[in-house]
Amino acid sequence: MATGDETRLIAWHRELVGAHDRLREALRIAQQSTSEQTPARRDLLLFCHGFCVALGGHHTSEDEALFPELVARHPELSETIARLAQDHDLIAVLIQRLDAAICSGTTVEDVAGRLDGIAAIMESHFRYEERRLVEVLASLRLRAPIATMLGPL
Q: Which of 25, 47, 59, 130 could crosslink 30 through cysteines, CB 3.0-4.6 Å?
């Protein structure tokens, strides 16, 4: 029996952009938590960890499910997918460093700077991904749950 996502025609290009928009909003909330006069350490941990988990889950799903499917159907995208996967690795390292800094009790200013660095790379990555994949995704016919392909956000 098919589940909710599998019973409808999924507009994958819209789902990708929607996932990116939700991640942008999660990042904005995390950044906002660093700009408060005296942010509570637990709020900072919550927002930054939540953002990091969401972004990591999105990239893991793309790497494990969406990207192999795209390369199988569109081998001409191999170089694009390789570049996107390389971005995922870089962003994962930056997230690990942010997480370690937060856990070590670093300053709010340090956290804000690290989030700004992630934001710059993430936005560049999202724009490139959307430019290169939206057209292909608009025509993609694939029976799979959205969370499997794009992460649980």
A: 47
Number of structural domains found in the chain: 1
* CATH number reported for the structural domain that contains residue 38 in this entry: 1.20.120.520
Structural domain of 108: 4-150
Per-residue pLDDT of the chain (153 residues; tens, 9 = 90+): 345 444 445 799 999 999 999 999 999 988 888 876 555 666 777 888 889 999 999 999 999 999 999 999 999 999 999 999 999 999 999 999 998 988 888 888 898 999 999 999 999 999 999 999 999 999 988 888 889 999 987
User: Whole-prediction pTM value?
Assistant: 0.87
